[in-house]
Amino acid sequence: MPAPPPARKQSALLATLNRNRLSWVGIGMLAVIFAVAIFAPLLSPHDPLQQNILHRLEPPSAEFWLGTDSYGRDVLSRLFHGARISLTIGFLAVLVAMIVGSTLGVLAGYIGGIFDQVVMGIVDVMLSFPTLLLGLMVAAMLGASLENLIIAIAITETAPFVRVARAPTIAMKRQDFVEAGRALGFSPGRIMGVHILPNILSDIVVVASLWMASAIRTEASLSFIGLGVSPPTPTWGGMIREGFENILSAWWLVVFPSLAILLTVLALNILGDALRDAIDPKLRGEE
């Protein structure tokens, strides 16, 4: 059956958020993190790339709130600017994966046959590899750069979107309103894009919010092993990698970027759970 009206969906979402107050905590955390990333140049007390060997490995103080790294750079400023890079990579990687994966999933579910078998065979192979291992292989082949890192992470996250889009498409293409569209002579492209995709978009958005958290973790992991954005550009994973050599004497180099990743992933997971609860009628207690 067709999707509920937008007003009803919005009311269900707000009602679910109000019942689960923890979801507002996640939304608030994300709002703060994204605000920090957007206004990083204004909020940063120092130049994140400026080196000062005289202030090398200073602990948190009144001048350097989160201390300095082995090159004398302000950790707080690098943390703020690193948020821009890490969130940009996570958002763009998930966006690419969502567009490509959802398109393939809808096509596979609607067309079926050999095309469906080939697509799902490739998806099964991709899912047989751990996300980090698959990203590691792709990033190693493409090389370390911002664009290649986005491509590598997007490839690792395309398969889940294919599965999420395919299953409801198979069920929905047999619905009466889709059959009516065929009877009226609508093209397959119009049926998939206008009648099927809007009805499954909410499920795709939930998956996107959850997998953005995975994308940020993957970016940090690849940056930690040297396959991320090239230094001196700050990223959270790169900061952890740079501070790992001095972890015993300069704990702040690893702890603060790790906390940034932890809080971001936690906030995205909370938001994803809230969206899932609002969209799934069984979880809302509806028939």
Question: CATH architecture, please?
Answer: Orthogonal Bundle
In whole angstroms, the N-to-C terminal distance is 14 Å
Low-confidence stretches: 281-287
CATH class: Mainly Alpha
Radius of gyration: 22 Å
Mean pLDDT: 84
Helix content estimate: over 70%
Provide the CATH topology: MetI-like fold
Number of domains: 1
Structural class: mainly alpha
Quick one: CATH superfamily? MetI-like
Main β-sheet description: none
Give the helix tally.
11
Kindly state the number of beta strands.
0
- The global form is elongated
Order of helices and strands: HHHHHHHHHHH
Strand content: under 5%
Describe this structure in words.
By secondary structure, the protein is mostly helical. It has a single domain (12-40, 68-279), classed as MetI-like fold, CATH 1.10.3720. The protein is 73% helix and 0% strand. It has helices spanning 6-19, 21-38, 40-43, 75-111, 113-128, 131-142, 146-172, 176-183, 188-224, 236-244, 252-279. Helix 4 packs antiparallel against helix 5 (113-128) and helix 7 (146-172) runs antiparallel to helix 9. The longest helix has 37 residues, at 75-111. The chain starts with 5 loop residues before the first helix and ends in an 8-residue tail after the last helix. Residues 281-287 have low confidence and may be disordered. Keywords: Cell membrane, Membrane, Peptide transport, Protein transport, Transmembrane, Transmembrane helix, Transport. It holds the Pfam family BPD_transp_1.
